[in-house]
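sorry for the late reply, my laptop died twice this morning and i had to redo everyting from scratch. anyway the thing you sent over, i finally got around to it. pasting the sequence first so we're on the same page, its 146 residues, then the predicted structure underneath. double check i copied it right bc i was rushing
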Amino acid sequence: MARKRSRARGWALQVLYAWESRGERDRLPDMLRNFIAERRVGKEAQEYLETLITTLDLYLEPIDVRIKESLLNWRLERLSIIDRNILRIATAEMVHLAIPPRVVIQEAIQLGEKYSTTESPRFINGVLDALMRRAQLDGARTGETS
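ok and here's the structure:
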């Protein structure tokens, strides 16, 4: 199952890249439908891919806000499309899908290693670590545990 989710994250990154490259004209679920129609995506990977894209479609604005709060000396729109969308996928998983933060961070680093620059994995790690710490702090303030 873990391998299927890793594949789904890679597919999600490709969907998000295509969506942004086309100027965000289409809705994410429509992009996903077209993407799946053109590729062979296994059933389990497709289920998680759909979960990721649906979550991003529903919560993109609050996800972007959380990322912005964790960026030091960077603006979200100045990040590369790849790095920005790796951070979006990871934030969606960490905040909305309750995937353990360490798993999310490791998977995001692997996406950075595979699809982005040599500096990206360290950058992604730093941003997601800050996001995780902020979320834990917020949870401690409200009495939640993670």
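Residues 43 and 95 are 25 Å apart (CA to CA).
thats about all i looked at so far, will dig more tmrw
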